[in-house]
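Q: I have 389 residues here and want to know how they pack in 3D. Can you give me a structure?
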Amino acid sequence: MVNDVLLEVLTAASLFFLNPLFVATLIAAVFLGYMRVKRERRNFRVRLMPGFTELKRLLSESWPYAIILSIIISGIGLIVDSGWLVLFCIAAFVGLLSFNYKIMSPIYFVTVAYFTIYFMERYAVDFVYRGWSPKSVDLFGELAVTVAIIAGLFLLAEGLLVSRYGSKDTSPFLKKTKRGLYATVFKTKRLWLLPVLFLVPGDIIPAYLPYWPQFTLGEAAFTFIPIPLIIGFSQVIRSSYPNIAFPKIGRGIISLGVVVLALGIGSIWMPILGVAALIIGVAGRVVLSIVASIKERGGAFVVAPKSTGVVIAGVIPDSPGDKMGLLPGECIRSVNGLNVTNEKELYDAIQINAAHCRLQVLGRDGEVRLMQQVIYRHDHHRLGILVIQ
């Protein structure tokens, strides 16, 4: 009996871990890391972070949000239609395969799944799959309320993740300016995986797996189904620093999420507000992306070459430069008392007295400060910074 139960539990777990969306996300995270390392080595001959960084942070940064979302969605009884849930996963899978993570906001998946049912109800009336039919969905009633509230919660989670972690894996690369020089552009392309527990009416899974969690309320049966919620984010910036730009974008997404959530709650009394919430959510998210892109494309390069020293494009984590507190955009004016204007002069000056490497740095605020750090022979890439040539 115990063996049978364990077998059923393992089979149930496989419904999540063998979900095509889950597997595809793991592969996409590895691919993201590979492409980033390849780009960094092409530009700077050294990578900023290991290639598996994106994979390691795929779940480590987002699991608290997944737990909170699961508790809220299941705790307040937000029951989703099984057909909508399948269409939601399909939309996320297609978005993931596009590798265009600007369209990987969950507000798009929620809305696409909802309106797909709407068009199926109008143009595929006879469609039936395993007992599910679009005609059986309360499209402008319970579903409109549920998906609008869920969309608002998803936007809040996305905004918090972008605000807190958007700049963490920012990768610098070189771009030619109109003057023929190379300046630094920062690019982030992130994926977050959130295992979220949804509440679905009926006994879809327990019909095949008797030990799958299920409960009844009156005569109705409900099933918990774990689904991999994928949140993607992609943005290139050049006229501001990552730790300044991405929190602003994140706060904009959070504000949009509050509006959508408020409309979703209002749809409890007026369901049409749920449909309006989805439309406003999609339009608002598109506007936020467009405004951010236009602002960055039109602005000047904040990290550009300077004749007064060597400009830092990136700092390798845990390197001597990182321990000294060096930041992208700062300019190293002298090393061990010698003025430097390029990477060769920088490292030639370091060799004079590496054991007590002294730097004069011009900070982002224009203030000059002195720094000192011991550099050992085994330290990767010596100082551990990427510079503009």
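Q: Anything worth noting?
A: The two ends are 68 Å apart (CA to CA). The chain has two domains: 2-298, 310-387.
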